[in-house]
Amino acid sequence: MKKVRTEDAVGQVLCHDITQIIRGVTKGPVFRKGHIIQPEDIPVLLSVGKEQIYIWENNENMLHENDAAAILRDICLGSHMHGSEPKEGKIELIADCDGLLTVNTAGLKRVNSLGEMMIACRHGGFTVHAGDHLAGTRIIPLVIEKEKMQRAREAAGKEPLLQVVPFEKRTFGVVTTGSEVFHGRIKDTFTDVIEGKLKEFGATMIAHDILDDDPQAITAAITAMLDKGVDMVFCTGGMSVDPDDQTPLVIKNTGARIVTYGAPVLPGAMFLVAYMADGRPVIGLPGCVMYAKRTVFDLALPSLIAGVPLTQEQIAAWGEGGYCLNCPVCTFPQCSFGR
């Protein structure tokens, strides 16, 4: 790449897009990379402030911004997404289906720490829809060393930095516990909330039991639902630390592996995540899910529907952003909650 006076550039090959910005009227390229500059182009180039321009010089050790941006695209490009055409060294990634966006955060940080390049993406762990823009990649200079782009590949690792895991049609069961509900002293309003949230993801409840505070009966009910073939089980009631609240122990007695009992999220601290040996989740829901607009349940649901296991590390990371501000008008997920 060589910089020359615009008046001396006739016949040369332009090595970058030339953009014209007129506020409220237009923003776009007047000439594209690869354009051979003609005499009539000179006044146009001068009118957009280009007294000097860069023309292409072959250098086997360097890459043009568009070619380098394509490498960043490939580093990011996981399943169920596609990339846009390069434009001024920028490529965007777009979702092909509804699903859960996952991000290799460590790899992303390593690449962005190299300098002269950038990848900006949405937060992982949240729902995306077909057609949503997921990320943008860009090379900062007009050309960059091939060796540096190889370092970017190595920093990212072998797997793509981004994935969209499609949502699947799930079935679930609900085990409602508590003598007050079992004996009809109060109405069960919790199950309707669970059904409503799961319905947004196309999931169907195929089993529901209301039980007294009988640990053996509750364990048996969970096991029976799993034997029936439900994809996941949600347990309500008995999730606090009172002596007679035994739901965490009951879930453990099913043979499930407890990932966490407790989450750094408000509302939702008394959240329990467990998995059976075959990978099906058994979830203990705190009482706040019944009455709060958004809770830890909303952060967990996309992963549960996509079939991506929740990890202790992931749940611990919810602490930063895990404090819901209970805004008068809720805009979740377009807010800071869980991010």
Automatic annotation (TrEMBL):
<comment type="function">
    <text>Catalyzes the insertion of molybdate into adenylated molybdopterin with the concomitant release of AMP.</text>
</comment>
<keyword id="KW-0808">Transferase</keyword>
<dbReference type="InterPro" id="IPR038987">
    <property type="entry name" value="MoeA-like"/>
</dbReference>
<comment type="pathway">
    <text>Cofactor biosynthesis; molybdopterin biosynthesis.</text>
</comment>
<comment type="similarity">
    <text>Belongs to the MoeA family.</text>
</comment>
<keyword id="KW-0501">Molybdenum cofactor biosynthesis</keyword>
<keyword id="KW-0479">Metal-binding</keyword>
<keyword id="KW-0500">Molybdenum</keyword>
<dbReference type="InterPro" id="IPR036425">
    <property type="entry name" value="MoaB/Mog-like_dom_sf"/>
</dbReference>
<feature type="domain" description="MoaB/Mog">
    <location>
        <begin position="173"/>
        <end position="306"/>
    </location>
</feature>
<dbReference type="Pfam" id="PF00994">
    <property type="entry name" value="MoCF_biosynth"/>
</dbReference>
<protein>
    <recommendedName>
        <fullName>Molybdopterin molybdenumtransferase</fullName>
        <ecNumber>2.10.1.1</ecNumber>
    </recommendedName>
</protein>
<keyword id="KW-0460">Magnesium</keyword>
<dbReference type="InterPro" id="IPR001453">
    <property type="entry name" value="MoaB/Mog_dom"/>
</dbReference>
